[in-house]
Every structure is written in C-alpha cells, then in structure tokens.
C-alpha cells in the first residue's frame, strides 16, 4: 500500500506548525501576565476604597465621640427633676453651656494629640 502524501508531511509545513505553536504559547503567556496585572489593579482599587471608608469612619467616630457626652448631660438636665441644685442657680444655663464647650475642647485636644486629624 502506498502512503498518501499530504502537505502536512512536508518539512516546511511542520516548521510552520511549530512556529504557530510557539506563537500561541507566547500569546497565552502574555494573556496570563495581563490577567495578573488586572487582578493586581483591582486589588489596588479595593485597597483605596477601604482607605477612604476608614477615613469616613474615623470622621464619624470623632463626631459621635464629641456628641455622646453632650447628649448625656442634656438628657440629665432634660428630666425636669425638682431638686437639682443647678436649676436654681442664676448661672445654671450658662454653666451647662460652659461644660459642653469644655468637654468638646478636651475631646478635640485628645484627638489632636493622638493625631486623629
């Protein structure tokens, strides 16, 4: 039986197919590099979002920390007890405002010293 000769049997064709195979491997490796680069870029973006969210949370924490003691004091004075000595004091209203102001300054100073802002 005689062997049928096809263009694939020729040495030139085999060299051409090997060249195509090598080019395909190079393209696949380049695609893998691009995929890794895109993954790294996505991770960097997510990290930046986390940093921004942490800054927002820090700001909200500072605001909350300032207003919690003020709300507590205002709540006590809003209970309308009859026998609170400060209620009969001539400067009671301004005294509470002074306490509010001092507490706010102390908390801000504490955060400034801790380099929160």
Automatic annotation (TrEMBL):
Any coiled-coil regions, as ranges: 21-48
Mode of membrane association: Multi-pass membrane protein
Predominant place of localization: membrane
Pfam families referenced in this protein's UniProt entry, alphabetically: CorA (PF01544)
Membrane-traversing stretches: 60-79, 91-111
Cell compartment(s), UniProt: Cell membrane
Keywords: Coiled coil, Membrane, Transmembrane, Transmembrane helix
UniProt entry tagged with the keyword Isomerase: no
InterPro entries per the UniProt record, alphabetical: CorA_TM1_TM2 (IPR045863), MgTranspt_CorA/ZnTranspt_ZntB (IPR002523)
Signal peptide: none
Protein's recorded name: CorA family divalent cation transporter
Species annotation: Echinicola jeungdonensis
């Amino acid at each position: 039986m005689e062997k049928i000769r096809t263009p694939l049997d020729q040495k030139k064709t085999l060299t051409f197919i090997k060249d195509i195979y090598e080019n395909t491997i190079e393209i696949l490796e380049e695609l893998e590099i691009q995929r890794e680069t895109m993954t790294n870029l996505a991770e960097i973006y997510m990290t930046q979002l986390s940093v921004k969210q942490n800054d927002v949370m820090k700001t909200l924490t500072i605001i909350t920390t300032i207003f919690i003691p003020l709300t507590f004091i205002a709540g006590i004075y809003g209970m309308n007890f009859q026998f609170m000595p400060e209620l009969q004091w001539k400067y009671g209203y301004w005294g509470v405002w002074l306490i509010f102001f001092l507490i706010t300054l102390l908390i801000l100073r504490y955060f400034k010293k801790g380099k929160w802002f």
